[in-house]
């Protein structure tokens, strides 16, 4: 029986830029950082709140992947927040532009999208 999503894995094009974005801009907490010399690759384990985790990987010259929301595969990664307006303002102070806030027609909850340094679509969803 599945109990929860353990982690989301992301491969970035520039490790230092993405590390800064997820740690300093989004506020994820570093659990562990590992350099794998045989792969010339970093693996950064990040905590998202009390339960979620992101594994941020770097590899030499990773291939591009389509990121449009309607492309096959992962559509986007969504983060929950108690105060959407405050989080949008905090991101704006960090230079991150969010789309206009919308209302989920099924739940009545507010949400918006923004992009990570590799153009991965990320969502903020108000709890």
Automatic annotation (TrEMBL):
Superkingdom of the organism of origin: Bacteria
PANTHER family: FOSFOMYCIN RESISTANCE PROTEIN FOSX, LYASE, PUTATIVE-RELATED-RELATED
Annotated Pfam families: Glyoxalase
Keywords: Metal-binding
Natural source organism: Metabacillus sediminis
Domain VOC: 4-127
Protein name per UniProt: VOC family protein
InterPro entries referenced in this protein's UniProt entry, alphabetically: Fosfomycin_Res_Enzymes, Glyas_Bleomycin-R_OHBP_Dase, Glyas_Fos-R_dOase_dom, VOC_core, YwkD-like_dom
SUPFAM superfamilies, per the entry: Glyoxalase/Bleomycin resistance protein/Dihydroxybiphenyl dioxygenase (SSF54593)
